[in-house]
Amino acid sequence: MDLHGFIPDGVPGRRLPSVIVLQEAFGVNPHIKRVCRRVASAGYAAFSPELFHRAGAGLEFGYDEFPKVKPILGALTNGQIAEDLRAAHSHIVGRPDVDSARVASWGFCMGGWASVLAACELPLAAAISFYGGGLVKPRPGIGFTPLLDRLGSIRCPMLLVYGAKDTGIPQEDIDAVQSRLASLGKVHEVEVYPNGGHGFFCEDRAAYDRDSAEASWTRATVWLAAKLA
Fold first, then answer.
1. How far apart are CA 89 and CA 195, in angstroms?
2. DSSP-based three-state secondary structure for 149
3. CA-CA to 185 of 20 to 30 Å: which in 4, 8, 93, 151?
4. In the chain, what is the greatest distance between 2 CA atoms, to the nearest angstrom?
5. Residue 14's pLDDT band (boundaries 50, 70, 90)?
6. Distance (Å, rounded) from C-alpha 198 to C-alpha 29?
7. Which residues face 60 on adjacent strands?
8. Looking at residue 122, what DSSP letter applies?
9. What residues are labeled active site?
10. Are 82 and 121 in contact (CB under 8 A)?
């Protein structure tokens, strides 16, 4: 499994906090790499694992190519993604330039789902999920399955970010996740942007909403800095 790494400039000799940046359903594409660079510019070592590696190396798809993506998603299982998350985490914490006690995950779309799984599986300091769907109900043709019953295993604070106009993640699903986390006593925060649709943070998608994207970046980075201080 390839792991794309982005290290901040000018910090020799420091053990850095790190973020595992988890891809959308379209691969570790230019958008995800830009996110990694932004995360690195904020002072974190950023790493993005290729979760599609079983289907081929370096796979990227256009946002109009979901029919090509769906068979790959259909073949992925919770166990396979958990295996990849553990492998990525093991590599990252083994690096001499990373502080193993200050590792977080941050995922988008399917990566938002994977970031919740990471919070269940890994000894993270924090986890962020941007519009992670499929947490509550199964999705036709998608191999990995809901995590609502797994939320008791979460080991770290979570920030969950959604768009109110995201038709794939209705408010009832957001409420179900929030209610479950609250009942379990998990440290979490939920932010819903009223003008955001699915993918609102990605400038390459038709759903991009600049105001929501900028506000959510500030919200997430301030929250992350507090958790990884």
1. 34
2. helix
3. 93
4. 48
5. confident
6. 17
7. 27
8. S
9. 109, 166, 198
10. yes
In terms of Cα–Cα distance, which of 155, 160, 213 is closest to 184?
A: 155
- The C-alpha atoms of residue 117 and residue 213 are separated, in whole angstroms, by 24
Separation CA 104–CA 155 (nearest Å): 11
pLDDT tens digits, one per residue of 134-149? 999 999 999 999 999 9
Read off the pLDDT of residues 15-49 as tens digits, 9 standing for 90 and up.
Answer: 999 999 999 999 999 999 999 999 999 999 999 99
Q: Does position 12 have pLDDT exceeding 90, yes or no?
A: no
What distance in Å separates the CA atoms of residue 196 and residue 212, rounded to the nearest whole number?
6
Question: Count of alpha carbons within 13 Å of 215, Cβ hemisphere only?
Answer: 15
Of 214, 197, 164, give the one whose Cα is nearest residue 63: 197
pTM for the model? 0.97
What is the identity of the amino acid at 32? I
With contact defined as beta carbons under 8 Å apart, do 208 and 202 qualify? yes
212 Cβ partners below 8 Å, 6+ apart?
163, 193, 195, 196, 200, 201
Alpha-helical regions (H) of the chain: 30-41, 66-75, 78-93, 110-121, 171-183, 210-227
CA 30, distance to chain mean position in Å, is 16
Cβ neighbors of 9 (< 8 A, separation 6 or more) are none
